[in-house]
Specification:
The complex is a heterodimer of chains A (about 500) and B (about 60).
Chain A: H1 3-49, H2 62-96, H3 100-131, H4 134-141, H5 152-174, H6 181-222, H7 226-236, H8 245-289, H9 296-300, H10 338-341, H11 348-353, H12 362-365, H13 392-397, E1 401-402, H14 432-441, H15 449-460, H16 472-488, E2 492-494, E3 505-507
Antiparallel strand pairs in A: 2-3
Helix pairs in contact in A: 1-2, 1-3, 1-8, 2-8, 3-8, 5-6, 7-8, 15-16
Chain B: H1 2-5, E1 13-18, E2 24-25, H2 28-36, E3 45-50, H3 55-63
Antiparallel strand pairs in B: 1-2, 1-3
The chains are: A mainly alpha (about 500), B alpha+beta (about 60).
């Protein structure tokens, strides 16, 4: 199996993995859509229809039944619309990135709807559990115990004493009795006892009711989830935890809703990343399948990490073999521009010696001797030669056009002395374009129109003033020229799946 | 050479603008623009080539 076949096999395998990953992500997104629809349905049901246990009131007559049907239609359609918009928004985020306002609206409303319906459900669930609680029901079935129970013996004694008093008073009128004070005192004493007994009974009833209601509240609170109870106790501190049950329910349902939304949003991100990876791989495979077989020397070399085609091939439009640059561009060395060179003296003698318009400063031809070294440099320090940029302006002003070198079949048959130029001292990697390519490879600049435009603008506009100031159109032309060369060199391509708002160019280096 | 000076005749040559790293284009304004910001590490050169010439070969020859 050749290197090309192996690499193709690896790329196909990776593509299959990405596609399986994408399918799984899409399935989860659809599940999220269905779940969101149901949650919104629940939210709308609570908002517009109330608890299902109360729906029997809608079925009393035709008018209320019509109203119920109308409301149900609104509830279902609204839930479908909201969940669909959310699903679409998450797919949109995957393709085109997040929009802060849409993210906050979609996720914020989803959070509100989810914890609104969830917290209501917690209350309903607690009520249902409470109704099935026998201890709670026992507190409700002993209502009769609060009625006062009068002592029957005391009543009988009072009746007997009053009867005796009445008989005494009748005898007193007939003269058979001297007085009835004893009987009267007995009746009064018995009535006083009855009042005391009734008062004690009432106080006992009040205390019993207090205990009963406290027990009911305790049972109601205990019907909530232990996690909710724990959080409520934590929130209450030294106070009554039952007052914080609703707050705990809201906090816990909010936490659950936030987790759900984060995971749902994550799915949209993975969808975008998977699609980008699949497209890049398909492009790389298509390009690699059309490329020639690598030579044996390349085949015997250890396998490099997978990368798109075009890197090892000579770039289109280049007429010279690839060689290592003779000089390296220092990162801290500023790039000089035309306007910065205007004040420098024009080396007319040098230009005369180089009819092609190149000017090479003398310092480049002879190394600096010890005598010429500045005094402030040490023995091991060496002054770097200035870049050969002094002739830019001069060259543009007095451009020399060489005569045709080729003539069909006579290509290269005649060569005039003007055609000969010196060995290249510079290549594209030393200019602003090379710096841009390095920045893109290092991830410091995105290979898109706006980031590249800004990258160029930051490097040429901040110090440039006057009539030479680069306007926006000129910078756009520079950006287009950079992209044209990068595409010519096989570093980037036009995105074949480009849609409005998406990536127009794909960096494949 | 007669064709070059004959009025209304179809052009038989093309002008290319190339840099020392071998990159070339055919748009003079773009070449000037690139030189103005030292885009390619050198200033561009100009060559006039026959229409049927292999530009890659000719640029390579000019730079050799």
């Amino acid at each position: 199996m050749t290197v090309k076949d192996t690499q193709l096999d690896l790329m196909h395998r990776k593509l299959e993995q990405h596609q399986a990953h994408e399918q799984r992500g899409l399935l989860l997104l659809k599940l999220g859509f269905v779940l969101t629809f149901l949650l919104y349905l629940l939210f709308n049901q609570h908002l517009y229809l109330g608890d299902a246990l109360s729906w029997s009131a809608y079925f009393k007559d035709a008018a209320s039944l019509f109203g119920f049907t109308f409301t149900v239609a609104i509830v279902v359609l609204m839930a479908l619309f909201l969940s669909w918009v959310k699903h679409h928004a998450y797919l949109h985020f995957g393709f085109f990135g997040s929009v802060a306002l849409v993210v906050s609206t979609v996720i914020g409303f989803a959070l509100f709807a989810e914890f609104f319906s969830s917290s209501a459900n917690q209350d309903v669930k607690a009520s249902v559990l409470l109704e099935r609680n026998s201890a709670y029901q026992a507190t409700l079935t002993h209502e009769g115990s609060s009625s006062s129970t009068v002592n029957s013996g005391l009543i009988a004694s009072i009746a007997t004493a009053e009867q005796k008093l009445a008989r005494c008073e009748a005898n007193l009128k007939l003269g058979k009795e001297k007085h009835c004070d004893g009987d009267r005192a007995k009746v009064n004493a018995l009535k006083s006892s009855e009042q005391s007994a009734n008062k004690a009974q009432a106080e006992a009833n009040i205390e019993r009711d207090k205990l009963k209601y406290a027990r009911q509240d305790e049972l109601k609170a205990q019907s909530y989830n232990p996690v909710i109870l724990t959080l409520a106790r934590f929130l209450a501190g030294d106070g009554d935890y039952k007052d914080y049950l609703k707050t705990a329910v809201v906090l816990i349902t909010l936490f659950v809703a936030v987790c759900f939304e984060i995971l749902h949003h994550f799915l949209s991100k993975t969808h975008g990343a998977s699609m980008a990876a699949i497209e890049d791989l398909e492009l790389a495979i298509a390009k690699y399948e059309g490329s020639p077989e690598p030579d044996t020397a390349a085949s015997s070399a250890p396998l490099a990490p997978l990368k798109p085609l075009g890197l090892d091939r000579p770039p289109i439009g280049f007429g010279m073999p690839q060689t290592a640059p003779s000089t390296a561009q220092r990162d801290d060395q500023p790039v000089l521009f035309k306007y910065q060179l205007q004040a420098e003296p024009k080396p007319t003698e040098s230009r005369a010696r180089f009819p092609m318009g190149f000017t090479f400063p003398p310092v480049a031809s002879t190394p600096p001797s010890a005598e010429l070294r500045p005094k402030h440099l040490g023995a091991h320090e060496e002054q770097l030669s200035l870049p050969a940029l002094g002739g830019f302006k001069a060259h543009i002003e007095a451009e020399t056009v060489s005569r045709p070198l080729a003539n069909g079949s006579k290509t290269g048959s005649v060569q005039t002395p003007e055609m000969t130029v010196s060995r290249p001292l510079a290549n594209g990697s030393e200019g602003l374009y090379g710096a841009w390519v390095s920045a893109v490879k290092a991830g410091e600049c995105l290979p898109s129109v706006k980031p590249t435009w800004s990258w160029i603008q930051k490097r040429i506009a901040p110090t440039e003033t006057g009539t030479q100031t680069d306007d926006r159109t000129r910078i756009s032309h520079m950006q287009k020229a950079f992209f044209a060369r990068a595409m010519k060199e096989g570093l980037m391509i036009l995105n074949p799946h480009y849609t409005n708002g998406g990536k127009k160019y794909l960096w494949i280096a | 050479m007669d064709s070059l000076i004959t009025p209304n005749a179809a052009p038989t040559t093309q002008t290319i603008y190339y840099w020392l790293d071998g990159y070339w284009i055919t748009d003079k304004e773009e070449a000037d623009l690139m030189d103005s910001i030292n885009a390619f590490g050198s200033v561009h050169q100009v060559a006039e080539l026959p229409l049927g010439a292999d530009i890659e070969v000719e640029v390579s020859r000019l730079l050799s």
